[in-house]
Design brief:
It is a single chain. The two termini are 34 Å apart. Helix 4 packs antiparallel against helix 5, helix 8 crosses helix 13 and helix 11 packs across helix 14. The protein has 15 helices and 15 strands. It folds into two domains: 196 residues, 3-Layer(aba) Sandwich (Rossmann fold), CATH 3.40.50.2000; 168 residues, 3-Layer(aba) Sandwich (Rossmann fold), CATH 3.40.50.2000. By secondary structure, the protein is α/β, with parallel strands linked by helices. Helix content is 43%, strand content 17%. The strands form three sheets. Strands 3-2-1-6-7-8-9 form a seven-stranded parallel β-sheet, with helices on both faces. The protein has a six-stranded parallel β-sheet with strand order 12-11-10-13-14-15, sandwiched between helices. InterPro entries: Glyco_trans_4-like_N (IPR028098), Glycosyltransferase_grp1 (IPR050194). Keywords: Glycosyltransferase, Transferase. Pfam families: Glyco_trans_1_4 (PF13692), Glyco_transf_4 (PF13439).
Length: 386
């Protein structure tokens, strides 16, 4: 199978979408498929096989992301030379639109995936007025592909309500041999921050940005710290809100910045409870990674996160309309009750172990095969009657 994967975010970018697509490319390669990556040029070397890097600029409101800019003639020629059986467009901006049109002209089967609630992001970045236009474009874009892969049933229901067609569930997995509670670097991370083995650590891992609802989280953490001053708080990640949060919480929280690879897994394992207040997640990869690391989760019951976390089983869920005080009380409950925290931690780990990347990616690969066969049937003329 020959697959062209088109995306505006890919490793070494640090976010859930890039990690998912990196995992997809790796596992397709392990199964003997040829994968052509079309993605922004991050300056990383060496080139992956069949890679087509695209010139890009940083977004002013989201500097970690790079927006590929036209013209895309070289990209089209690279796709033609690769001769893919299927094109998977993972992001919907200029590059994705250009490839969608090119693949359609070439009658190449094309699929897409929906990863980000851009309409909700628009509210946080001052362009909420464009919501209806964004939804109309996204619906138009995805309905021109043969299938759209969506990470949660909640998001599928939302998209179906807005007129999206041919939606297929494509959840996320986690590597439980990598993200695990007994990471060798766990103790070293805690010692680095001056924490004892008995300290309870509340951990947040994600982009530190308005769309992640971090102002709400910071308020809840401050309430916890005021009532339980021995609790430790750790932020792992970076983003436009980090400066404000660090100035506000520098005395009661540690900020580790972005971590990847073994350092990221060790920082998860160094925690005791995972706190997550985003309401914009279509899935929430970091939540599943935290659960694999043996952390019970306290989260808002919103988006895909509400499907991953089972209340009073793998964590505690708080109504998204509840004030930060209610979220703080849920955190304090796990801080104070060791047995409850341990029970939820074991259940969280057990759930994560059931979420195999192999099964999830094999399922997507089967969808590709079906789409390729469907495209072949459409291209082949119907047999004439004798």
């Amino acid at each position: 199978m020959r697959v062209t994967l088109v995306t505006e975010t890919f490793p070494p970018q640090v976010n859930g979408v890039s990690r998912t697509l990196g995992e997809l490319a790796r596992r397709l390669g392990e199964r003997g498929d040829a994968v052509q990556l079309v993605y922004p040029d991050y300056g990383d070397r060496p080139d992956p096989p069949h890679a087509c890097r695209v010139g890009s600029i940083s977004l002013p409101f989201y500097k970690e992301l790079r927006l590929p800019l036209p013209p895309f003639g070289r990209t089209h020629r690279a796709i033609d030379a690769f001769r893919p059986d299927v094109v998977h467009v993972a992001t919907e901006a200029f590059l994705g639109l250009s490839v969608l049109r090119h693949a359609s002209r070439r009658s190449i089967p094309i699929v897409s995936s929906f990863h980000t609630n851009f309409d909700q992001y628009s509210h946080h970045y001052g362009v909420g007025w464009a919501r209806s236009l964004i939804w109309r474009y996204l619906r138009w874009f995805h309905n021109r592909t043969l299938e759209t892969y969506v990470p949660s049933r909640t998001t599928i229901a939302q998209l179906e309500g807005r007129g999206f067609d041919r939606l297929v569930l494509w959840p996320r997995g986690v590597d439980c041999t990598f993200f695990r509670p007994d990471r060798p670097g766990r103790t070293a991370v805690r010692e680095t921050y001056g924490w004892s083995p008995d300290d309870v650590v509340l951990t947040y891992v994600s982009r530190i940005a308005p769309e992640k609802n971090v102002a709400y989280l910071a308020e809840a953490f401050a309430l916890v710290a005021a009532r339980r001053p021995d609790v430790r708080i750790l932020f792992v990640g970076d983003g436009p809100s980090r400066g404000d949060l660090e100035a506000r919480m520098g005395g009661i929280a540690r900020f580790a910045g972005y971590r990847v690879g073994d350092e990221l897994a060790d920082h998860y394992a160094a925690g005791d409870v995972f706190a997550f207040t985003s309401t914009t997640e279509t899935f929430g990869n970091v939540v599943l990674e935290a659960m694999a690391s043996g952390l019970p989760v306290v989260a808002l019951r919103a988006g895909g996160v509400g499907e991953i976390v089972r209340d009073d089983d793998t964590g505690l869920l708080v109504d998204p309309e509840a004030p930060p005080q209610v979220f703080a009380e849920a955190l304090i409950k796990l801080v104070d009750q060791d047995q409850l925290r341990g029970r939820l931690a074991r259940s969280a780990r057990s759930y994560a172990e059931s979420q195999s990347w192999d099964a999830i990616m094999d399922g997507l690969r089967d969808r590709y095969a079906g789409v390729i066969a469907q495209g072949r049937d459409l291209r082949e003329p119907a047999p004439t009657a004798p």
